[in-house]
Amino acid sequence: MTDHFKNIYANKADLYDRMVAREDQHGNLFSALNEIHDLAGATAVDLGAGTGRVTRLLSFQVAQVIGFDMAPAMLAVAREQLELTGMDNWALAVAQNEAIPLANDSVDVVVEGWSFGHAVGWYPDDWRDRIGAMLSEMARVVRPGGTLILLETLGTGRKSPEPPTEGLAELYAWWEGEQGFQHRWIRTDYQFESVAEADELTRFFFGDDLADSLVEKNQVLLPECTGIWWKQV
Fold it and tell me: Which ranges carry the Methyltransferase type domain (predicted)?
């Protein structure tokens, strides 16, 4: 699946943005982020910003947010969507997670959204070293008393949380056991407008089995469990 996701991020950013726009219709993620760290007036960073869904959420409450992603095509869509909000407290830039172009102790909260987990599949032999470097960068740019927040999937199509792969299970256990992160989970279900839309917006990303199941069951609601890990520094 290494090339699968990289291809989507490089070539299907618009379709991806339409898909994530259907996730978390009840706003559970925004509420959870605010419970973990009071976002009012904060300066924030969104790593793996993609097409800017979390960046947009943050922009409505923080003083400033900067979204970083390695895929220029994703950030191009993010820019279009952020400009529509009328907010002017955001910025976007291309960057790798392990090399954040910010000064030490310069922000209050850093969020990574569905980005670090890819390293487990992309770098199976040394993902701990690579993700460890990403965590170190997060800690470097956060002021004392700031918060690191990690968002990753705990199962698409599931109503209760479970890591979807053995590799992600190892990652999450490593975060909780060795890296000192606290953990909770929330539901961030997808709500599609029609079965046809559910088919279109899930097949390209999640694959034929899941999309076929939605169509067969005439289903427009796709359960999603999202894990949240956080640590104050």
Answer: 45-150
Contacts of 194 (CB under 8 A, 6+ apart): 220
pLDDT at residue 1 is higher than 50: no
How far is Cα 47 from Cα 95, in angstroms, rounded to an integer? 9
Stated pTM of the model? 0.96
Domain segments of the chain as ranges = 2-232
Structural contact between residues 191 and 22, judged by C-beta atoms closer than 8 angstroms: yes
For the CA atoms of 174, 187, 6, 111, the dihedral, rounded to the nearest 10 degrees, stands at -60
> Cα separations (Å) of 148 from 2, 40, 115, 183?
26, 16, 14, 12
> Which residues are CB-neighbours of 98 under 8 A, at least 6 positions away?
130, 133, 134, 137
For 128-187, what is each residue's pLDDT tens digit?
Answer: 999 999 999 999 999 999 999 999 999 999 999 999 999 999 999 999 999 999 999 999
Q: Residue 170: what residue type?
A: E
Using DSSP's 3-state secondary structure scheme, residue 94 falls into: strand
Residue 117 CA to residue 174 CA, distance in Å, equals 12
